[in-house]
Amino acid sequence: MLKMSLMGDFNQWDEARHKMKKTTSGTWEKTVVIPPGQYEYKFLVDEKWQRDPANEMICQNCFGTLNSVITVKPA
Q1: How far apart are CA 55 and CA 37, in angstroms?
Q2: What CATH topology corresponds to 4-72?
Q3: Cα 2 from chain centroid?
Q4: What is the Cα–Cα distance from 63 to 32, expressed in whole angstroms?
Q5: What digits encode the pLDDT tens for the residues 11-20?
Q6: For residues 10 and 71, what is the distance between their CA atoms, to the nearest angstrom?
Q7: In which element (H, E) is residue 48 found?
Q8: What share of the chain is helix, strand, coil (3-state, %, to 5)?
Q9: Under a CB-based contact definition with an 8 Å cutoff, are residues 15 and 48 in contact?
Q10: What is the Cα–Cα distance from 12 to 10, expressed in whole angstroms?
Q11: pTM for the structure as a whole
């Protein structure tokens, strides 16, 4: 069974905090409310790191791989 979590510096890279759910249409979703700012994140898919394929914004992390980056603007 496929497991997927959203992890980033907004949740201290905690796998348990934002587990994603597969919708009936086959996409994976998770709603997260975070303060404005810039955040690095990745998905953990069956114990393997994966960047967000829908986001071209990336940065290098301290492990020599790439993270996805998102900027949350004030409402």
Answers
A1: 16
A2: Immunoglobulin-like (2.60.40)
A3: 16
A4: 25
A5: 999 999 999 9
A6: 12
A7: strand 48-50
A8: 0, 45, 55
A9: no
A10: 6
A11: 0.91
